[in-house]
Amino acid sequence: MDDFLIYLGYLILLINLILYAFSFFRKEKANVFFVSYLAFSFVMQFSMELVYSLHLSNLFLVNIFVIGQMLFLGLFYHSILKLKNQKQIVKWGLIITLLILGIQFCVEPQLFFKFNLFEITVTSLMIVVFALLHFYNMLTESKTYYYVTIAVILFMLGSTILYLVGNLTLTLSENLKYLSWKLNAFLFIIYHLLIMYEWKRSFFKMTILNE
C-alpha cells in the first residue's frame, strides 16, 4: 500500500509535468518557473528513488530538493506578483533564507547528509508566505493559479507538521513511526491532483481551442 501511494504520486507528478510543459511550449501562458519546478521535482524524486533502491542514503538529495523547491516556487511567485513591495519580500526572503542555511551548512557540513528538520521547516514556511501574498491579491484580483496556490499552502503546512510529528515519533512503535510518512504520501497525491485541476481550469480550454 505504501509503495502504491508513493508511485501513484510520482505518476500524477509526471502527468502534471507533461500537461504544463505542453501548455508552455504551445505558448498558452503556463509559467516557465512553475514548469521548471515540476521538471525539477520529477528529476529529484526519480533520483531519490533510484539512490534509495541501491540501498544508499538519499538525504543529500532531499536537502538539494528542499532548497531547490523553495527557489523555484519563490521565483514562480515573484514572477506573478504585481506589487513591488511584495516582490521585494519574496526576493529578500529567498536571500535571507539561503544565507541562514548557508551559514548552518558551513558550521555543520555534516547536516547536508542528514535529515535537516530546520531546513525543511524554514523553506516550507517561506513558500507558504509567498503563496499567501498571492492568495491575498486574488481576493481583489483575477484568480491566477488559484488552485495551485491553495495546494501549495495546504501541502507545505501539512507536510511540515507531519515531518515534525514524524520526528517526535521516531522512538515510538513502527506503526506510529511510519504513519506520518504514509499521510505525507497521501497529501502529496492531493497536492498534485489540485495542480492537475488547475491545469484543467486554466489551460484545457485553451488547448482545445488551439487544436
Which percent range fits the helix content?
Answer: over 70%
- What's the order of the H and E elements? HHHHHHHH
Low-confidence runs: none
Give the biggest sheet: none
State the secondary-structure class: mainly alpha
Mean pLDDT over the residues: 90
Radius of gyration: 18 Å
Alpha-carbon distance between the termini? 40 Å
The total count of helices amounts to 8
Label the overall shape: globular
Instruction: Please give the oligomerization state of what you see.
Output: single chain
Proportion of residues in β-strands:
under 5%
The total of beta strands comes to 0
Write structural notes for this entry:
With 211 residues, this protein is mostly helical. The protein contains eight helices and no strands. Helix 3 runs parallel beside helix 5, helix 4 packs antiparallel against helix 5 and helix 6 packs antiparallel against helix 7. The N and C termini lie far apart (40 Å). The mean pLDDT is 90.
Key terms:
211 residues, mainly alpha, 8 helices, 81% helix, globular
SSE arrangement:
Layout: H1 2-25, H2 32-53, H3 59-80, H4 84-107, H5 117-137, H6 146-168, H7 174-202, H8 204-209
Helix pairs in contact: 1-2, 1-7, 2-3, 3-4, 3-5, 4-5, 5-6, 6-7
